[in-house]
Amino acid sequence: MEQNWFFPPHGGIRLSDLADAIGATLENVDAEDRLVRSVSPVYRAQEGDVCYMLSRRNRDEFESCKATAVICDKSIAPLVPPGIPILLTEAPHAAFALAGGLLHPIALRPPPLLSKSTISDKAAIDPTARLEEGVEVEPFAVIGAGAEIGQGTRIGSGAIVGPDVRIGRDCTISAGASVLYSLIGNNVIIHPGARIGQDGFGFAPGRRGMIKIVQIGRVIIQDNVEVGAGTTIDRGAMDDTVIGEGTKLDNQIQIAHNVRIGRHCGIASQVGIAGSTKIGDGVLIGGASAINGHITIGSGVQIAAMSGVAADVPAGERYGGIPARPMRDFLRDIGEMAARHKKHRNAGGKDE
């Protein structure tokens, strides 16, 4: 790949320093002074790059690898070509993530659009809004009456911060995002076009048609949460919609009113979570899954992609399928279905 000027290489980190920073052991102590400048996939890694490998199935990629170092665990280490230093760790994926953040810190959150950090005179800021020292506001952002924004936070171009919203310190509210009726913690990243705090979908059928139910709750987003581009989080109807500390939301997710998501969850793109669902800590939900309303998903649960979760899921379970069921049952059902199909075809039957 040609030189990427959007994310230029780092000035250089010594391998021994990188090993300490990511919690790895440098197996080749004579290479401690070699410099790492960037991250790369294994197959095209060059001098100055660090890469990682998780599976022996990809061992062929080492044939073209010329990396300065490879991050891996003990099962992969014997496959690394001689002469390439090894950064040994039990958690290579997490270690590589840490390395990437050290080498390319500007890629960790949406960057400022302008070279000068300031409060633009082209932004509309209500005189009653309170901004701590060091807040940046880009052109055409709007900050409503009584809003409070903490030190080190950047409000992107065209973003909207509604009246009385509270945003903590060191946050990034990206271009075109809107934050209404919300309390936002510290170090929160909201990507472009996200919609936070609009009213939830609530209507009561009546003789005159659908009667709108008022939504008078809030959205509470705790510290270190990341909200992907185009994701929508509705405010509560009468209670609050809550996103727990450290949770990461992918692009284009819909979170309905009164949903409560625990700490350190990971939710992939196109998931829809209906109203008043409670999700525990450390839950992982695969892309395009649909989560029914008024159910509870326990802590530590894993939901496979494209699942339909209709009822409560006990803590620690792995579920998949439509309707979602324990993974062992889902895989058994898939196997039986495949066997029936094969038998049908072998008997000369035709698909309808």
From TrEMBL:
One GO MF term attached to the UniProt entry: UDP-3-O-[(3R)-3-hydroxyacyl]-glucosamine N-acyltransferase activity
Presence of keyword Repeat: yes
Domain UDP-3-O-[3-hydroxymyristoyl] glucosamine N-acyltransferase non-repeat region, chain residue ranges per copy: 33-99
Signal peptide extent: none
Pathway where this protein functions: Bacterial outer membrane biogenesis; LPS lipid A biosynthesis
Enzyme Commission number: 2.3.1.191
Keywords, sorted A to Z: Acyltransferase, Lipid A biosynthesis, Lipid biosynthesis, Lipid metabolism, Repeat, Transferase
Reaction catalyzed: a UDP-3-O-[(3R)-3-hydroxyacyl]-alpha-D-glucosamine + a (3R)-hydroxyacyl-[ACP] = a UDP-2-N,3-O-bis[(3R)-3-hydroxyacyl]-alpha-D-glucosamine + holo-[ACP] + H(+)
Assembly behavior: Homotrimer.
PANTHER family (UniProt xref): UDP-3-O-ACYLGLUCOSAMINE N-ACYLTRANSFERASE (PTHR43378), UDP-3-O-ACYLGLUCOSAMINE N-ACYLTRANSFERASE 1, MITOCHONDRIAL-RELATED (PTHR43378:SF2)
Family in the record: Belongs to the transferase hexapeptide repeat family. LpxD subfamily.
Role of this protein: Catalyzes the N-acylation of UDP-3-O-acylglucosamine using 3-hydroxyacyl-ACP as the acyl donor. Is involved in the biosynthesis of lipid A, a phosphorylated glycolipid that anchors the lipopolysaccharide to the outer membrane of the cell.
Name the record gives this protein: UDP-3-O-acylglucosamine N-acyltransferase
